[in-house]
Amino acid sequence: MQNKPIIYLDNAATSWPKPPSVIEAMERSMRESAANPGRGSHAMAVKASRVLFEARKKLARLFRVNNPNDIAFALNTTHALNLAIQGLLKPGDHVITTSLEHNSVRRPLEALKRKLGIEVTYVQTDAKGLLNVKDVEASIKSNTKLIAVSHSSNLLGTITPVSDIGEIARRRKVKLLVDAAQSAGVLPIDVEAMGIDLLAFPGHKGLLGPQGTGGLYIHPELELEPLMHGGTGSKSEAPEQPLVRPDRYEAGTQNTVGMAGLSEGISYILKETPEVIHAKEQQLTYELMEGLQRIPGVTLLGPEVGVERTAIVSFLLEGVDPSEMAFLLDQQFGIAVRAGFHCTPLGHETAGSFETGAVRASPGYFTEKSEIVSMIAAVKEISDTLKNNK
Ligand SMILES: Cc1ncc(COP(=O)(O)O)c(C=O)c1O
Fold first, then answer.
1. How far is CA 289 from each of CA 67, 305, 363, rounded to the nearest angstrom?
2. DSSP string, 94-139
3. Domain final residue pick, 272, 290, 316
């Protein structure tokens, strides 16, 4: 990996650094295949189409999707979630979601509540973020159309029992949307085995691709209203958006250069495997948690060390505002973390940190043990300085 100018612990927002193969593929694509994909029939346009096809094929392999064309590309998770939510729900529908969701699930649902009069139930998890699936089933009503859950909380790192919810959703004939923003590339995902009808994922986090990439898996028997209408390079004579996938959900020119990078990111993950990536990240996470909780005045959010989680450590230090902590870590120690509400006021309400927000440190696959040690030492130094100044 390239020399790192900073200690980067903000992988939950966007992963960094990227494998060199990702950067090289993007440069190569820009030089050799950045014509318009799916439109012209000349050699470079065909090359561009092949870049998209390869990325789709690899995504299908990673998420065990039978037909790669059931994956529609999107700009990010938010875009994919909006396509799923706005494309599926109709007036009178009821949706079940949880008290941990990101604003990218909550806001589109709340917007449809205002616009279409849909109903939304937020199932409460405990303060550590653990969800009881029985509470999900108990919330199902005759008009429940959708269960929408994040696979892993971007505040607490808790992992949602998606397969159990998938079993309930199938039995009760409700659709299941999974927000895989924090799990794609890190936790094994098998859409069929887990009963997932819609899977929204980012390219720029665990899949190690660039920003501006992501996508939505749509079950072959599920029809969504497109979010955008426009040129697809197919059925151009028709005034309506074509039915054929993925064109139906991909109006406009796609991000060929970004997908060239994402394709290499997925190759990297398929080689390493999500299992190995998750095991390493979880180990780093436990070490960070153990070090931080030895510092007097530190409170960690989420489940204890030993409970399976993704690489997210949110914490508070008594007497220090989270944004001040993030500022000091950045300015004095060159450590990048994220403070505030992490786009999940619901999650902060659940964890009891709504008044303060929190500091979130999120290691990645390329984080080194020495960087975790430096992070712990930096928080300790900030804590000691504060005590000495009192
Ligand atoms: C759980 C969760 N959902 C949705 C999003 C939004 O992702 P994106 O930035 O790819 O739109 C994030 C981003 O951090 C997230 O953590």
1. 41, 7, 11
2. EEEEETT--HHHHHHHHHHHHHH--EEEEE---TT----HHHHHHT
3. 272
Three-state secondary-structure class, residue 376: helix
pLDDT of 162-197, one tens digit each? 999 999 999 999 999 999 999 999 999 999 999 999
Mean pLDDT of 247-275: 97
Q: How confident is residue 5, by pLDDT bands cut at 50, 70 and 90?
A: confident
Reported pTM: 0.97
pLDDT tens, position by position, 79-111 = 999 999 999 999 999 999 999 999 999 999 999
**CA 360, CA 280: separation in Å to the nearest integer?**
19
Based on the domain organization, do 252 and 298 belong to the same domain? no
Q: Are residues 91 and 227 in the same domain?
A: yes
- Pocket lining for ligand 1, CB < 6 angstroms: 13, 76-78, 102, 104, 150, 154, 179, 181-182, 202, 214
Query: Where are the extended beta strands (E) located within 140-262?
Result: 144-150, 175-179, 198-202, 214-218
Domain, as residue range, for 293:
273-389
> Residues 122, 62: one domain?
yes
The DSSP 8-state label assigned to residue 320 in this structure reads B
- The alpha carbon of 55 and the centre of ligand 1 are apart by a number of angstroms equal to 21
Pull the structure tokens for residue 242: 């074509």
Q: Whose CA is nearest to atom 14 of ligand 1?
A: 13
Banded pLDDT at 2 (limits 50, 70, 90): low
Q: Do 134 and 35 have their domain in common?
A: yes
